[in-house]
Specification:
With 469 residues, the chain is an alpha+beta fold. Helices cover 27% and strands 18% of the residues. It has twelve helices and 14 strands. The strands form four sheets. Strands 1, 6, 7, 8, 9, 12 and 13 form a seven-stranded antiparallel beta sheet that branches. Strands 2-3-4 form a three-stranded antiparallel beta sheet. The chain has a two-stranded parallel ribbon with strand order 5-14. A hairpin with a 5-residue loop joins β10 and β11. α2 packs across α12. The relative contact order is 0.19. The structure holds iron/sulfur cluster.
């Protein structure tokens, strides 16, 4: 509901990182057990189902070489906005290429939903007119309308029960909206609670057959927790550049994906730097602006005057570099020994610190991104916040992956390539928990495509051709 609909695909190189680039000290870099071509038909199908705008003809050749496409996007891009066009010109002057961000935002009426009106409020909030395609409007609601799907809302699932030998799941136990204990049985159990709560559920499902948690015989459940951290850059203008007069972030730059190697990188203590895409041309959401001013002057008349002046939502436009977060065994989710939730059940505990690879990426790339902001026409200044060089407590993070990685070796992974738990015949994981690595791209379209691939593997149904709109 609150994602902002950016829909870039991963690159071919992301699936073979260990083979191509070798190991990194203190990291658990791994190849994926599937490749780009395994996901390609499902990316196609998801793009057509949710309605992704974009323009293949404006994508750099280097991007298309790594992320080949068999067809044009389902609809053309929205207008990019004035602030984004100024930053794109700054990028061009520095030798970089900004192009329309693939986004699940309607640039025309599509699938019974209206076109986007560029109100600019999508980042972090629901779209008030359903111009944005997502799991709810594009998948769950249509499925529920068939009458063949039963959705149990506000069900809190706390255990997957198995047969005594642990080979098969028998039922799922949950607490309903009124706090009553219930259960539901089925032939197949698919977990998709996102990495933290999928892990929690697997660990809470410990039994005599699985004493350390379901699927956790190798002590891999919960490990390799990954987050996306962001280096932020901003340009300040002397005039109103209207950064919120467009959907959230209309342009993408791929020049900072990498991998980068050579003496400059080795001097930073890592064998390579692999970062990610840069989201270019966004403005600070109004609530973030209000919170920033409140931190400076509190609330009251001074706060009102700052909001009316609106420097942040009129004269500041910026970008975010998405950092690839390398997997580490010690970055993990487990059950907190001391904290319980309101049900009295152990809460999830997250232990995390970024790998030095991310600091190297911020050191190497942050100044280059600040430079193209300074080169933007009309910019009077630019600044970067190069996470994670700043205080470790000052994090800016979104997106999460890992904790139940796919792999061929049960000693180092939790699921096989089909998403099925090693050693349990009928329990699958279908969310970003399954990702072995976490490349620096917005993850939603790949989460959906991989879930669709896993679902088709379970059902045995062929991949249908994408819908024609
Ligand atoms: S800019 Fe406004 S109308 Fe367009 S997708 Fe975002 S929230 Fe919806």
């Amino acid at each position: 509901m609150h994602y902002n609909a950016k829909r870039p695909r991963l690159w071919r190189q992301d699936f073979t990182q260990l083979s191509d680039l070798g190991p990194v000290e203190d990291a658990q870099v791994a190849d994926w057990p599937i490749g780009y071509d395994d996901l390609a038909p499902y990316w196609d199908e998801v793009e057509y189902r949710v309605g992704v705008q974009g323009d293949v003809t404006q994508m750099p050749a280097s991007t298309l070489a790594q992320s080949p496409r068999s067809r044009q996007f389902v609809m053309p891009p929205n207008p990019k906005g004035y602030a984004a066009s100024l930053l794109a010109e700054g990028a061009r002057r520095c030798g970089y290429t900004a192009y329309p961000y693939p986004a699940a935002v309607n640039s025309r009426d599509f699938d019974g939903r209206p076109r986007c009106n560029s109100c600019g409020l999508c980042s972090g909030f629901g779209c008030p007119i359903n111009a944005r395609g997502d799991a709810l409007v594009s998948w769950l609601n249509p499925a529920a309308r068939t009458g063949r799907v039963r959705v149990i809302d506000r069900a809190w699932v706390y255990t997957v029960d198995t047969t005594p030998n642990g080979r098969r799941a028998r039922r799922v136990r949950y607490r309903d909206a009124h706090g009553r204990d219930r259960s539901v049985s089925g032939d197949i159990v698919v977990l998709a609670g996102s990495p933290i709560n999928t892990t929690r559920l697997l660990l809470l499902s410990a039994s005599d057959a699985h004493p350390t948690g379901l699927g956790n015989r190798s002590d891999q459940v919960g490990r390799n927790m990954m987050f996306h951290n962001f280096t932020l850059a901003a340009a300040v203008y002397a005039h109103d550049v209207q950064p919120l007069r467009a959907q959230s972030t209309t342009l993408q730059i791929d020049d900072f994906v990498g991998p980068f190697t050579g003496p400059e990188v080795q001097a930073l203590g890592v064998p390579y730097v692999k970062a990610g895409i840069v989201q270019t041309g966004s403005g600070a959401p109004l609530l973030m602006e209000a919170a920033t001013y409140a931190g400076l002057v509190g609330y009251g008349i001074d706060h009102k005057q700052l909001m009316r002046a609106g420097i942040m939502h009129s004269r500041v436009a910026g970008s975010q570099l998405i950092h690839e977060d390398l997997p580490q065994a010690g970055n993990r989710v487990d059950l907190d020994p001391g904290v319980r939730d309101f049900h009295g059940v152990p809460a999830a505990r997250i232990t995390y610190s970024p790998h030095r690879h991310e600091k190297a990426a911020a050191t190497l790339l942050g100044p280059k991104i600040a430079a193209y902001h300074a080169a933007s026409p009309g910019a009077t200044g630019s600044a970067i916040i190069p996470y994670p060089l700043i205080e470790p407590t000052m994090t800016y993070t979104a997106h999460l992956a890992g904790t139940a990685r796919m792999g061929t070796d049960p000693a180092t992974s939790v699921c096989d390539a089909s998403g099925r738990l090693h050693g349990v015949d009928n329990v699958y994981v279908a969310d970003a928990s399954t990702w072995p690595t976490f490349p620096g791209f917005n993850p939603t379209i790949t989460i959906m495509a991989n879930a669709l691939r896993i679902a088709r593997g379970i059902s045995g149904a062929p991949t249908p051709l994408p819908m024609a709109h």
